[in-house]
Structures are given as C-alpha cells and as structure tokens.
C-alpha cells in the first residue's frame, strides 16, 4: 500500500486512491493508520477517486473513524501526485461541494455555502462572547483575552459534548490582536483533542468576526505556526458567499504501512 502524506497549516493527512484500497472501509483505514502511538499520528485520512470529467470526489475520516468534512485536508489533497493539475478544481469533499484554487505555494478552498450554511444562534451559555456556525460541521467560537492562557483541555470537552448539541461541536478560541488579525486555537471532535489548525473553525471564526468587527478579510495565526487567511461576503442573516480559506500546503512523501498494523 502507498500512503501519501501531505500537510496544510501544520496538520498532516494521509491519502489513498480508492481504486487501490481493498478489504477495508475508509473508517477502518483511519482508525488503523491515524492514531498517534500505534499509527502515523495523522489528523485524518482521505480516500480519493481518480480525476475524471466531473467534480473530483474525496472522502475524509477522522482518527476515530467518523466521516466528516475537512477543509485543510481537502486543500492539501492538491499536493498529492495524480491530483487534478488545473489551477481551479471543482470538487465534492465528503459530500460538500467546494472549489480548490492554486496560487503559488498556497491552495485556497471556497467553503460550502447555500441553504443551511452560515452563522446560527449560540446554543449554550458561554463564559466569553461567542459565535456559532455550520460549515459542513458545527463550530463554536469563543473570543478570549488571551488564547495562550486558555486551558483548552479543561475548557473544550464540556462544550464539545454539550447537551444542547446532539452531535457535539468543534471548539475554537480566538484573540483579536489587530484589525483583521487574530490568534486561534482549536479542539476538534473526531480527533478529540487540540489540532494545529482547524480550517473550518478559522472560516466560521472569520464569519463571526466579520459580523462583530465589520471586517471581511482576516489573517489567523495558528497553533502550528503557519498563517491562514479568510475572505468572505456575509449577509445580514449570517449566511456567507465566496468564503475562501487559503494557506500553504506541502507534499511530505510516501510511506508503506507494515502489514502488522492490521494484525
């Protein structure tokens, strides 16, 4: 088996071509290959269809084997050999229609939009000002005085599993440090821990900050040390259009999992 590794904003994902996979589901592969310690320490696993005449089809699984939409992993997929070569790629990632765009070393993703996507009322009481949105997954955003001072492992799990949300939510803390510039940290469901950057969390954070601050372009300093940028148009009801998340991606290489992983 050839497992290709690629990264976006510090997060590392594994990629397999669907026509080369036999005997296991994507969920099985994710639960085997992703976990830190007994696998490769990946943030998620993708199965990719070969590019054809229609949208490029990708499917993503979290480390716990649950299927989810992942924006950073979708961006990094363009770094994989055999991915579509054009500068603009229409794709369907875990059922969500997106557009991927190459600009030099960066790849941007136009996030899902339309009915159901956008900001929503915050479903639970919070200690700090908060926003909430649906972007193919749920995202709670808290504006805090200092992201570095937040004990995220103590704060996030009770919000991630809050009874007000049947499927739980990702939890993000943001600190605005200048107009259009913020620091962010994220706790992701499925991973059940802090990741170096949650792309969908950055996107919803930018939408909420656009509403509260009146600025529609944001640069986020992530826990992984790589900046990502977000630009969008937001209507009065909280729905967005042309929400683009952009940042660097890298192809890291190929690994050959040992057969003992499936023992």
Summary, kept brief:
14% of the residues lie in helices and 40% in strands. It is mainly beta and 263 residues long. Strand 10, helix 3 (152-160) and strand 11 (170-178) form a beta-alpha-beta unit.
Protein traits:
single chain; 263 residues; mainly beta; 14% helix
Question: How would you characterize this protein structure?
Answer:
By secondary structure, the protein is mainly beta. The protein is 14% helix and 40% strand. Strands 1-2-3-4-5-6-7-16 form an 8-stranded mixed beta barrel. The mean pLDDT is 94.
Q: Could you outline the blueprint of secondary structure elements for this entry?
A:
Blueprint lengths: L2 E6 L2 E7 L8 H8 L10 E5 L7 E6 L9 H6 L11 E6 L2 E8 L2 E5 L7 E3 L9 E5 L3 E6 L8 H9 L9 E9 L2 E8 L4 E3 L3 H15 L3 E5 L5 E8 L5 E16 L8
Parallel strand pairs: 2-3, 4-5, 10-11, 12-14
Antiparallel strand pairs: 1-2, 1-16, 3-4, 5-6, 6-7, 7-16, 8-9, 9-10, 11-12, 12-13, 14-15, 15-16
Helical/strand content category:
mainly beta
Write the element-wise H/E pattern from the N-terminal end onward.
EEHEEHEEEEEEHEEEHEEE
Oligomer: single chain
What fraction of the residues are assigned to beta strands by DSSP? 35-45%
Rg over CA atoms, rounded to whole Å, is 18 Å
Which blocks of ≥5 consecutive residues have pLDDT under 50?
none
Number-wise, the strands total: 16
Distance between the termini: 15 Å
Mean model confidence by pLDDT = 94
Helicity, in percent? Answer: 10-25%
> How can the largest sheet be summarized?
8 strands, mixed, barrel
- What spatial order of strands do you see in the largest sheet? 1-2-3-4-5-6-7-16
The number of helices is: 4
Shape: globular
């Amino acid at each position: 088996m050839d497992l290709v590794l690629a990264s976006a904003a510090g997060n590392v994902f594994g990629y397999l071509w669907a026509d080369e996979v036999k005997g296991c589901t994507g969920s099985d592969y994710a639960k085997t290959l992703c976990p830190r310690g007994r696998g490769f320490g990946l943030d998620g696993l993708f199965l990719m269809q070969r590019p054809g005449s229609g949208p490029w089809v990708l499917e993503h699984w979290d480390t716990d084997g649950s299927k989810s939409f992942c924006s950073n992993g979708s961006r990094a997929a363009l770094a994989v050999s055999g991915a579509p070569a054009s500068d603009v790629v229409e794709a369907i990632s875990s059922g969500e229609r997106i557009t991927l765009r190459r600009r030099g070393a960066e790849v941007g993703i136009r996030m899902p939009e339309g009915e159901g996507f956008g900001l929503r009322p915050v479903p639970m009481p919070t200690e700090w000002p908060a926003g909430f949105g649906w972007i193919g997954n749920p995202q709670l955003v808290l504006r805090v005085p200092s992201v570095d001072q937040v004990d995220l492992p103590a704060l996030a799990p009770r919000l991630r599993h809050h009874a007000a949300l049947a499927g739980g939510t990702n939890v993000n803390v943001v600190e605005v440090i200048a107009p259009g510039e913020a620091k962010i940290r994220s706790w992701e469901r499925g991973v059940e821990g802090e990741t170096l950057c949650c792309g969908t969390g950055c996107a919803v954070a930018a939408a909420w900050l656009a509403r509260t601050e009146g600025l529609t372009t944001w640069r986020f300093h992530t826990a992984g040390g790589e900046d990502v940028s977000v630009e969008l148009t937001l209507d009065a009801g909280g729905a967005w259009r042309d929400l683009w998340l952009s940042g660097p991606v890298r192809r890291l290489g190929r690994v050959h999992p040992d057969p003992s992983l499936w023992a």
